[in-house]
# Entry
Amino acid sequence: MHIAHSKPDFERLIRPRAVAIIGASGDLSRIGGQPLRALTEFGYAGAVYPVNPKYETLKNLVCYPNITAVPQPCDVAIIAVPSTSVAGVIEECGAAGVSFAIILSAGFREIGKTGAILQDELVAAARRSRIRVIGPNCQGLMNLRTRMYGGFGTAFQNPSLQAGPLAMVTQSGGFGFGVATEVAAASIGFNYIVSTGNEADVNALDLLEFFLEQDDVEVVTTYLEGIKDGRRLLALGERALELGKPILVWKVGNSGSGRRAAVSHTANLTSGPEFYRAAFREGGFIEIREAANLMDAARAFLSRRLPRGRNVAVLTSSGGVGVLLADRCEERELHLPELSETTKNELRKFMPEYAALSNPIDVTGQLRADAASMNRAVSVLLQDPEIDQVIIRKGSTVGNLGREWATNLIEVADKSDKPILISVLSDRSEETLEILNRHRLAWSPTPSGAVFGAAALYEFVIKTKRYSKREKRTFPRQEIDWPAAAATLGEHRSKQLLAAYGIPAVREVLLSTEAVAKLTHAPVPFPLAVKVESPDIPHKTEADSVRLGITNLAELRKAAVAVVAAARKHDPRARIEGVLLQEMAVGVEMMLGVVNDVFFGPVVALGLGGIFAETLRDVTHRCAPIDISTAHVMIEELQGGAVLRGVRGRSPADIDSLAETISRLSFLAADHADRIQEIDVNPLFVRPARQGVVAADALIVVKSPAAIVNTDSAVAANV
# Structure
């Protein structure tokens, strides 16, 4: 999947040769004064042009009455004027040859209708002037490599912020720069930080794409409240895997979202947060929930070592902390294998007799201050072929012992390509930590943080492997005769469309009640199910329009009349197309469906079926299309997946056929994203191994061709 839109070149925005400050203030504490102070005092080497007709000079610089009076073109204009004046200022910037505007001014769409009108005027002016805009209502931009402080707030008044191989794009200026400052205080530097504000023009995805491609950025992080192009987010995740650069994503706004008014079970089980999680699960994203997660993951990735697998060795001088670390590893799907006899024998040569040589390895308090022996143990663990990462819980790191331990550990680490993650006590020295930071050895102040870093590395490796092995589709796109307008298809017609993509359904016939009354034998073997067929009654059980376990003709005739009568009572205006006579299916009931989101396109949902679909809510999601191997991962993610694998003497279900069906449904949705709004297959019966699956009920909601908004019907061709 590739980003198909034009890519703005942000080189001159991020590394401007000249900056104008429109609305510059002599009060250096004001929004228009703070960037003037920072750009003239903190080391920026480019030209700075204050613009404000109230002043002749500011900070010993000529102050110009307007941007057109500035003697040379500026790459960036920082705008801090009232919102009502911004559109006119943008027009002037266009005439002056300015390429980018960073609009600090507030009072736009975020305040309601009046501000929305001003923002529309701003956008129109920017388009006419061919100027790209950051903001409005943003806090600004930092390039700490060139000391370009183009914004306001506490962070922009701190000249000691250090550059480093991270970049941040944040949709919340105050919070984002606050987090960046906190992370920087822990000696993790950002080369670039940008606040996007209202995103009237340039959005977070534009900048994430740019920073991913920068050679001096190794880790990208973002604070997201929402985006409008989920497919592009997916593409960025794939690009992150290709480049080997993780995107640490802090997604907020995940609670309290109302469920959509929808027809299908699938849509009732899907809301905004699930779409983001579906995207994050496949791409090079690592989800974080707090600043500590960001620091722990960043340090882990900056070590430039990736594990081969999920096996971790834990080394500690405290048995209690070892148990805690083991618990946290298991929670993060990391495994603590038993050490090989070779490794144990090597450890016995210098470990105390009563040391615990199982994993976690407890060297006891006797070796707590023995830096040489502790590091020798690390070296032995790194040489074990079954160990992929080593987590160390270290006691005090102060004084000569701390320096000796850290220096020697660096030598041990340099002889291996396996990650080492350290949990250090509060009794730690800045000098020792500086040694670890300088040599990019990951450390965390908590055991959980060290495990988070190790798990982030393993997660990224697994995603990269899956992406590299992603399978191509094995069947062609099928043409389908869709209704001319939006419609909800009945069960029988929906199953016919599923069959076009190789998704099997139960045997069934559609008859009128009159035809049923004349039957001399059952067209489907007894026992069978009887259902009303109506595109206006998607949930037949709620309408009492289903009868199961029919065993003879007399029951069949009675059931046919009953389901139609119940349907008419439920909805007198419903269109009744007949009665469905179906074979009774058996197997594990699953729910499989698709919702076509306006921003993310078709999203596949999988969960337990029948009455459990909306009660247990054990559901997992992926953005379509997906290959069979990804479908297998979805199945493994379900808590109820154990039922499919066979429990309490039950035979394993046909998981392979289920995975293929999931993939086929995803391609149906992706191929026809321009017309499909929802698909609901519930229940889908998964029969015993090698006996396949069968859809017992299905519903497809078709949207009007005019309703196409930001869905990508060609995405299937890219898998």
